[in-house]
Design a protein that fits this description.
Largest sheet of chain A: none
Order of helices and strands of chain B: HHEHEHEHEHEHHHHHHHHEHHEHEHEE
Strand order of the largest sheet of chain B: 2-1-3-10-4
Largest sheet of chain B: 5 strands, mixed
CATH class of the largest domain in chain A: Mainly Alpha
Distance between the termini of chain B: 67 Å
Shape of chain B: globular
Number of strands of chain B: 10
CATH architecture of the largest domain in chain A: Orthogonal Bundle
Structural class of chain B: alpha/beta
Helix content of chain A: over 70%
Order of helices and strands of chain A: HHHHHHHHHHHHH
CATH superfamily of the largest domain in chain A: MetI-like
Largest interface: A-B, 35 and 36 residues
Radius of gyration of chain B: 24 Å
Oligomer: heterodimer
């Protein structure tokens, strides 16, 4: 009996056992992308990537050079990163709150709400390149301090994009309820407030995260693009643009790398928050 | 029934509030424009230095950035002022509404728009004044002709032929700027015919006068003193964040960024060339306008055909990096400013200036005197 068991165990190869164990699978989902990333960086550093894309180390500097330069201008990079993060963060926060409030109002007033959300949706489709200069002119009277009014105008652009995103998604979450859920609440004689707190609010939470998954990267991108047009010269996007036009590609790549890292870190953060919040509600 | 009425009134009220606030917003920003235009008097005038200091202190100096800012940085550096400036867009609205009090302007473009009242102009006339970079001693050499060192080495006849025909075009253009403006306008201009004529006149001045205001008859000449001054200022006031590039810029000499042999070959030639490459292109620094009239005149009058070249003029604009376009071989020739070329070479490019079209700086800082009274 024991011998048979041993034989049975032996028949399973290590690879097979690995692919069946859930722990190994979890490791795999992390390891594969990481391995791919390392491969790309290795190809990049080995200049094989350059041969593939018919480019040179001037337009696409190798990673060691990028990080070497980054180490030399840390203060400047941090300053610009903070400016971009402030714009993206404040815009995202305010925009998401406003978007959610609009969705709540829309869900209580379905007649007006649907029309209002259509307008919000229309806002979301205005290109940033068109919105940013308009906001620049609009905020000219906000302050005599150019750095401040310029920041407000950038925040407004991010805010609009984030609000539109959140409004549309949250409205779906507030209104597309499980079948008969409202009828059930009616049989409990629940008040509108009760229905909102107990049914609509929890139901909308996954949709809030759907919206955030889009608007977190979008707000960073919007902040970066609106810096192109801003009156006051600061931020990651502005540095990328200036340095590319001035043919200082290695500096531009420092900021491109930072922009990528912000994107990855903020997305990972969002995933962690999502799993924490949704776990509590389920 | 009642509820619906209330809702309707609320909606109407909301719409009315929005409309009023929108209109109010528009009105308040434009009303600041027309005060005090005529009140400017000489008695309270500040000196140029005081004006620059005041504008720098208030943070109201403007420039477009993107490689156009070096002379302004040099000027601020010269007076020991912080080198922050506001980003100007490609209109003069910021100057108009006083958010930029000391605004960058090219004599041939923005200054004309500020002064003149033709279509697109702001009509300030002579009520505005300006500070000239040439007078301040921080002039840097602007529009030139460049290609890569490799291209020049492999196609010396093409480069000489291109220079020969282009300079012929420029000579015609500065002799008769009006006709040149017409040619540019027909070739696909980005601005109105009136402004094109103004621009042609002003560009002709930059091509035929040097930094000291002396006449230049030798079009395209790469004057050692002026180019060295540009390079010296660049070394002093331009800082590249990449340390190795910064080091390279500091050790750059004139011979690293320009070569006179092609210009000399063109000047000595009788007009017959054996170009190695017959079909070439030139990348402009900006949109098609009289700033580049020489090339358009040469093309329209068939000067390029005469030397055996087929030339394609590629307009620039906004974020076109002419140095990159030439360096990666998208185009053969380009128009840029000497400082941009020097810093691009310091960053690792392989560019070479072969002719200097503009002999003096066309950059001025324009201001309204009433903003700078004692």
């Amino acid at each position: 009996m024991e011998e048979r068991m041993r034989k049975y165990k032996r028949r399973k190869s290590i690879l097979r056992r690995l692919s069946e164990s859930p722990k190994a699978q979890k490791v795999e989902t992390v390891m594969l992308p990481v391995a791919f990333g390392i491969l790309v960086v290795a190809l990049w550093q080995g200049k094989i990537l350059h041969r593939l894309f018919h480019t040179d180390t001037f337009v696409l500097p190798v990673p060691t050079k990028i990080f070497g330069i980054m180490g030399g201008i840390t203060d400047k990079v941090i300053g610009n990163t903070i400016d971009t993060l402030l714009v993206a963060g404040i815009g995202l926060l305010l925009g998401s709150i406003i978007g959610y409030l609009v969705a709540v109002i829309a869900s209580f007033l379905p007649n007006m709400g649907k029309g209002g959300l259509t307008i919000v949706g229309a806002f979301a489709s205005i290109p940033i390149a068109a919105l940013a200069p308009v906001m620049n002119n609009w905020t000219k009277d906000v302050s005599t301090e150019a750095s401040f009014r310029s920041m407000i105008s950038k925040i407004l652009v991010v805010l609009l994009i984030a609000a539109a995103n959140m409004g549309l998604n949250a409205y779906r979450g507030l209104t597309e309820l499980k079948p008969y859920a409202l009828d059930l609440m009616a049989t409990y004689a629940a008040s509108k407030r009760r229905i909102f707190v107990k049914l609509q609010l929890p139901n909308s939470l996954p949709y809030v995260f759907i919206a955030l998954k889009v608007s977190v990267p979008a707000s960073i991108m919007t902040a970066i693009v609106s810096e192109y047009f801003a009156e006051y010269i600061t931020g990651i996007g502005r540095q990328i643009r200036e340095n590319i036009v001035l043919a200082q590609y290695s500096i531009a790549w420092v900021y491109i790398t930072v922009a990528c890292m912000i994107g990855i870190v903020s997305y990972a953060l969002l995933m962690v928050i999502q799993s924490l919040v949704l776990k509590r509600y389920r | 029934m009642k509820k619906r009425n209330v809702r309707r009134w609320l909606a109407l009220f909301g719409a009315a509030v929005m409309a009023v606030s929108l209109l109010g917003g528009c009105g308040s920003s434009s009303s600041t424009d027309d005060k005090g235009n005529k009140s400017s008097q000489e008695q309270g005038a500040l000196s140029d230095k005081e004006i620059i200091e005041k504008a720098a202190k208030d943070g109201k100096i403007g420039n477009w950035g993107l490689g156009n800012e070096y002379e302004v940085l040099a000027l601020l550096g010269k007076y020991g002022l912080p080198t922050d400036y506001l980003s100007q867009d490609f209109t003069m609205d910021g100057f108009d509404d006083n958010s930029v009090e000391l605004a960058s302007a090219m004599t041939y473009n923005e200054l004309g728009l500020v002064k003149n009242d033709y279509d697109g102009g702001y009509g300030y006339g002579d009520s505005v004044k300006y500070i000239d970079m040439n007078d301040e001693g921080v002039a840097m050499m602007e529009d030139n002709i460049f290609c890569t060192k490799k291209f020049a080495k492999e196609n010396p006849q093409t480069v000489a032929a291109f220079l020969y025909a282009s300079l012929k075009g420029w000579e015609d253009a500065v002799k008769d700027p009006k006709a040149a403006a017409d040619i540019v306008f027909k070739a696909g201009s980005s601005v109105s015919p009136d402004h094109q004529k103004y621009m042609a006149d002003e560009v002709a001045k930059l091509v035929t006068t040097d930094v000291n205001g002396k006449q230049v008859s030798d079009i395209g000449n790469m004057d050692d003193d002026a180019m060295q001054q540009t390079l010296d200022i660049a070394k002093k006031y331009v800082t590249l964040d990449d340390k190795s590039a910064q080091k390279k810029l500091q050790s750059t000499g004139l011979d690293d960024i320009r070569d006179k042999q092609y210009l000399e070959a063109a000047k000595a030639s009788d007009g017959s060339f054996k170009p190695e490459k017959k079909s070439v292109s030139i990348q402009l620094k900006w949109l098609p306008q009289a700033q580049f009239m020489g090339y358009y005149v040469a093309a329209a009058k068939g000067y390029y055909d005469e030397v055996g070249l087929k030339v394609k003029i590629v307009p620039g604009g906004g974020d076109i990096a002419e140095t990159t376009a030439v360096n990666n071989g998208t185009v053969d020739f380009g128009v840029t400013w000497e400082t941009n070329l020097a810093s691009a070479d310091a960053g690792g490019m392989d560019l070479l200036e072969v002719a200097q079209i503009y002999q003096r700086s066309g950059l001025v800082l324009v201001y309204k005197p009433e903003n700078f009274e004692k």
